[in-house]
Specification:
By secondary structure, this protein is of the alpha/beta class. The protein is 27% helix and 24% strand. Helix 1 packs across helix 8.
């Protein structure tokens, strides 16, 4: 079982390629369009940078032969810090211009890649952090046969704890015992959740089965509600979280994400 990561990144003309604290001044806005972004905005944690999110991914997948990274680059990689890491991924260049078009093109690319039937496709946006051993836990939940298990998010979305619409949310809780790559065995709790963001994992069979909806339906929340209603698809996310979306107010709870960010910033990526 291999995990194919489809990492979506976009080009910004104002990206500081050589700086260690890379902050883009372009981002996909809530409507999915590439827009100007004020780096002093409260939208992001003050310490945020796209490059350290990327370095965190490399750090948490280092020396693993069961992870394959595909960079979906919306724009010219020569103008991005990603050009420093060309030996870490297979490059797929696209010209999308919006978040939704980028997502659709990413699924088209994933469909064209030769993979095994038990492989996992992890669609990942460029503003997430991950904890160590997330790979083992992701493989563990997919190995656990469960009729409700269809999609997996590694993000324990903070909206489930702060929005009134989820005050009466009921979730199924499962515990999965996972053997880590270092030989340790740990338990991880997972909960059913009604929807997730644009970063999630799916096995190959369901990727093919839901390709029609995933490449035509707009809006993450509405799409997953539709998949549940029309096809009975479920989603599980971990407690505590194994990743977080780097947005102020929505960071996954109970984890010191700043420490993971600092670790990535100080890390030296092997050649």
């Amino acid at each position: 079982m291999k995990i194919h990561i489809f990492y979506r990144h976009y080009n910004s003309p104002n990206e500081h390629v050589s700086g260690k604290n890379v902050i883009s001044t372009k981002f996909y806005d809530p409507d999915g369009n590439l827009s100007d972004f004020n780096t002093n905005s409260s939208f992001r944690p003050q310490y945020f940078s796209f490059e350290n999110c990327w370095k965190n991914l490399l750090q948490t997948t280092e020396d693993r032969d069961d992870v394959v990274i595909h960079l979906i680059m919306d724009g010219d990689i020569k103008e991005s810090f990603m050009s420093k890491y060309k030996d870490k991924f297979t490059l797929h260049t696209i010209k999308a211009g919006t978040d939704q078009k980028s997502f659709y093109k990413t699924w088209e690319i994933a469909k064209s890649i030769k993979t095994n039937d038990n492989d996992i496709f992890y669609f990942l946006e460029n503003d997430y952090l991950h904890v160590h051993h997330w790979v083992d836990h992701l493989k563990g939940i997919f190995k656990k046969a469960d009729k409700m298990l269809h999609y997996v998010s590694l993000y324990d979305h903070n909206d489930k704890y702060i929005l009134q619409m989820y005050d009466n949310l009921s979730s199924r809780i499962v515990s999965v015992r996972t053997e880590l790559i270092n030989g340790d065995t740990v338990d991880q709790h997972w909960r059913s959740t009604p929807s997730t963001c644009g970063s999630f994992a799916v096995n190959k069979q369901l990727f093919e089965a839901d390709y029609d909806i995933q490449t035509t339906y707009d809006g993450d929340h509405e799409k997953f509600l539709h998949l549940n209603k029309e096809r009975g698809r479920g989603i599980f996310s971990p407690i505590p979280s194994l990743s977080t979306h780097m947005v102020n107010g929505l960071l996954a709870p109970v984890i010191n994400w700043h420490s993971y960010f600092l670790s990535a910033e100080k890390s030296v990526i092997k050649k």
